[in-house]
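Whether sequence alone determines local backbone shape is best considered at the level of individual chains. The sequence in question and its structure tokens are set out directly beneath this paragraph.

===
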Amino acid sequence: MIILVIIGLFHISNTSKASGDIPSINSNLQSGNEHYNIIATDINEQKYSEAKTESDKTLEYYSKAKNSTQNALNKAIKQNDSIQIEYLNYTLDEINMKINATYEIRSGINLINPDDLSISENHFQTSNQLIQNTTQYTDKRNQLEKQYPDKFID
């Protein structure tokens, strides 16, 4: 049996300068995380076709979150706001890692062989590790929020 980590909800604080993009980022990340969790459940239940369909949805939401984050980052760059730039770069790093994790899991699904699951399991484990590593970016953002609370409170 293959067990994958189920990721929790992701929420970034509302940055004042790029606040117009924050609701879209949060909404798309939350939806992407929910669909990633469905992938994990489907794989554990050996519903590989359903898992592949969910991976498409997951990538769609993470891509939308990435685009919204890039828009917010561009605004922060124009305003030369180094704290928001750093914060949004951490957000982009996390989203990119989640996208890579989703591609890894999709590769594993595409390589399913009932006689030998080892190749697929390697992809699933890599995906799992990537998802676990995303917490480093949450920690870095939380640290910035504590250091510069005025930047993250409307």
In short: Residues 63 and 99 are 8 Å apart (CA to CA). The helical segments are 22-44, 48-78, 82-110, 118-133, 135-147. The mean pLDDT is 88.
